[in-house]
């Protein structure tokens, strides 16, 4: 039995404090997904908290068919959708501005740890790209941002994403592809040049052949 | 070619497709640049800085979890439908909206938290209170019914613009194999979805109108006029 499942059984048996282990173990991954989907650190943290509490109240529903992480992110993604819907309703009523929330995110958020790169110049160039990347990702539609995050930032396969979102793998593949094209167009509109590498674009083919 | 690019980026090209794809890249420098750009885009995503919630996150969560563990289960508003609003004999979903003049005529206001319950003879009476703020005047009674094509559904809830999109606020109950919720709402335009089991969001299959929800699905639209 994996450690998560053992802890789940312990919590269900009445040891509420044992839930702390699951929070500590999965909080960064969950927050990372929510941060990219919601594009606002404050909202992402609130939704992450709500997600853990909801996971606790529904713990009996976790049967270990998927990993605890996938199950948790599934709850989190739907919580994020609810929050986004609510924000969108509030925006249409003039209560909040999603654009203002995004601006707050762009200016106010700092990553958790620094990146260690040997070449300072390369670090500087990439840092700029990453900053634009975060900002432009926050600007694409929520459904695109959601699947792009799960596929390319969390490196989940389409089966796992399907379990989380409830969409078919075929639908997800098309949506991810559109998300890539949209994000690329937005990056290029910002003046960011992509694809300057002189290496042959065969890395994925090689990786696939090595894996097969 | 778009399909080949997509499959390439997802690592799904077979041997024949790989050969075809590489030949196309050699023959078309623009396509080559396009693919390199998309590939860098994907790789940049994998290399983003890890993020973490602010300090004290775990403590805040655990405080809520402990409170949840100790909290008593306080029932929310439960609305039971009168018998005369029986289900239509069809495996489908429908919505019925009725005015609530009855309550006014009986002098039983819904404010200050009244709980509705079905009475004898197919009419509705109010038997106990909850912390409601709703005025009865002009409210509509709406009955939502969902008939799941899957037999092993354990619960169904409704999330919509009328309940903050929180499905836990509106659980449905089972009646003769159909899942039913009855709501009291002021006239307005609402959007909603059914939430089957834990997290499967389903558009009402017989909604007259649906609207893009921005997440690749469609919300059912419920129009309640005066």
Task: Give an overview of the whole structure.
- The complex is a heterodimer of chains A (212) and B (226).
- Chain A is mainly α and 212 residues long.
- Chain A folds into two domains: 1-106, RNA polymerase sigma factor, region 2, helix turn helix motif (Rna Polymerase Sigma Factor, Chain: A, Orthogonal Bundle); 108-212, Arc Repressor Mutant, subunit A, CATH 1.10.10.
- Helix content of chain A is 72%, strand content 0%.
- Chain A has ten helices and no strands.
- The two termini of chain A are 29 Å apart.
- Mean pLDDT of chain A is 79; it is low at 103-120.
- Chain B is of the alpha+beta class and 226 residues long.
- In chain B, the strands form three sheets. In chain B, strands 5, 8, 9, 10 and 11 form a five-stranded antiparallel beta sheet that branches. A four-stranded antiparallel beta sheet of chain B has the order 1-4-7-6, with no helix packed on it. Chain B has a two-stranded antiparallel sheet with strand order 2-3.
- In chain B, β8 (189-196) and β9 (200-202) form a beta hairpin.
- The radius of gyration of chain B is 26 Å and the shape is extended.
- The interface between A and B is large, with 78 and 57 residues.
Features:
heterodimer, A: 212 residues, mainly alpha, Rna Polymerase Sigma Factor, Chain: A, 2 domains, 10 helices, elongated, B: 226 residues, alpha+beta, 11 strands
Write the layout of secondary structure elements.
The complex is a heterodimer of chains A (212) and B (226).
Chain A lengths: L2 H10 L6 H20 L2 H17 L10 H25 L5 H11 L11 H20 L2 H12 L4 H8 L3 H21 L13 H9 L1
Helix pairs in contact in A: 2-3, 2-4, 2-7, 3-4, 4-8, 7-9
Chain B lengths: L1 H8 L5 H13 L1 H18 L10 H14 L24 E5 L1 H6 L7 E5 L5 E6 L10 E7 L9 E5 L12 E3 L2 E8 L3 E8 L3 E3 L6 E4 L5 E6 L3
Antiparallel strand pairs in B: 1-4, 2-3, 4-7, 5-8, 6-7, 8-9, 8-11, 10-11
Helix pairs in contact in B: 2-3
